[in-house]
Design goal:
The structure is a single chain. The chain is mostly helical and 339 residues long. The chain has 17 helices and two strands. The protein has helices at residues 14-36, 39-61, 66-70, 74-85, 92-105, 120-131, 133-136, 152-160, 167-173, 178-187, 192-195, 209-225, 232-251, 259-264, 268-275, 286-306, 313-330; strands spanning 139-140, 174-175. Helix 2 packs antiparallel against helix 4 (74-85), helix 5 (92-105) packs across helix 6 (120-131) and helix 16 packs antiparallel against helix 17.
């Protein structure tokens, strides 16, 4: 009698899944703070507060139970991913505005959790990038590269009101990302070997950023162990990005960065384990996940090298989100007993 169908295991609730995703982000966040200071913590706090207030207001308007939907944690995951994607010294209103847009137009316009077509965090990020390109391109220099230590209070002053510090101080703290720097310098006919002698480059990616990527990798492996995500998306995405970068690198190593640089730079690792693994805006079939991951890897490389933006993750994810219904319909596994 105990062996009777249906054989349904206890599936974790949405809140448990989201809690584990937030937990998996902690190593990357800790290394982010170690390399860049406490600015990212303030961004995460502002994003969390904004998403709670915005969702509460929208749920009240829709006459839905506020506590149930707020506590499922899905809004917090989107808010944290957005906070980790924008510069840690961006003004406070950028993260507040981005979070408001991400949760409103990325989630609730479509009906809430389970109905959104686009990844909410990437939608909010793309809107900010298009609307405020200058602010979104100024990232903080790692603490190890700043001659005079920047106090955490100065970071907060920049985020809350940049006019409280001198322009020289702010300039000393900010620079373009390694991906942005390479793209700019190549247009000035500099060779890659010369470009990468700049102090902002580390062993594999950007100095500080490669360390944070290792933190995200540790969190991603935890999600795989807990079976919150499957291997299909991260492996197919990272493999396709690595392979296409290897081809170009083998042809012209002084023009195209190494495949490891592409994997360890920008938001590649965060994308692999935390962004494209969104169960709502991504495909559901195993084959579909592999095709989805490969396509995003190729698009990220194409946008980085040939597009107008040095990073390509947000646009690649949003483009492929459009194709998810088609991918799912074409990759449905054959039902047992049917041809």
């Amino acid at each position: 009698m105990d062996n009777r169908s249906p054989y349904i295991v206890d599936a974790p609730s949405v809140s448990v899944i989201m809690f584990k995703v937030l937990l998996a982000l902690i190593p990357g966040i800790a290394l982010y703070v170690y390399a860049y200071g406490l600015g990212v913590i303030l961004n995460i706090f502002l994003a969390s507060l904004t998403v709670i207030l915005t969702e509460s207001a929208i749920l009240a308007i829709r006459k839905l139970p506020i506590k149930v939907f707020i506590l499922d944690g899905s809004g917090l995951v989107a808010a944290w991913l957005l906070a980790l994607s924008i510069p840690s010294i961006a003004p406070w209103w950028i993260i507040v505005l981005g979070t408001l847009l991400c949760i409103t137009f990325g989630k609730h316009v479509y009906g809430g959790l389970g109905y959104n077509l686009f990844n909410p965090a990437m939608l909010g990020y793309a809107i900010l990038l298009i609307s405020f390109p200058l602010i979104m391109s100024q990232w903080q220099i790692p603490n190890s590269l700043i001659e005079n230590n920047i106090e955490w209070l100065d970071q907060i002053k920049i985020i809350m009101n940049s006019s409280l510090l001198s322009k020289e101080t702010i300039d000393a703290m900010s620079s373009a990302t390694p991906l942005d720097y390479i793209k700019t310098q190549l247009t000035l006919n500099q060779s890659l070997s010369v470009i990468q002698q700049n102090k902002i480059f580390g062993f594999l990616g950007g100095k500080g950023l490669e360390l944070i990527s290792l933190g995200y990798l540790a969190g991603g492996l935890y999600l795989l162990k807990e079976k919150i995500i499957s291997w299909h998306l991260p492996v197919s995405f990272l493999a396709s990005l690595f392979i296409i970068a290897s081809i170009f690198y083998s042809i012209a190593p002084d023009t195209y960065a190494s495949p490891l640089f592409h994997v360890m730079s920008g938001g590649s690792i965060l994308c692999a384990f935390f962004i494209i693994t969104d169960p709502v805006s991504g495909p559901t079939t195993p084959k579909g996940k592999i095709y989805f991951g490969i396509a995003i890897g190729l698009l990220v490389f194409i946008i980085r090298i040939f597009g107008g933006y040095p990073e390509g993750i947000a646009f690649a994810v949003l483009i492929m989100n459009i194709f998810v219904p088609l991918i799912d319909s074409l990759t449905q596994p054959r039902i047992f007993g049917h041809k």
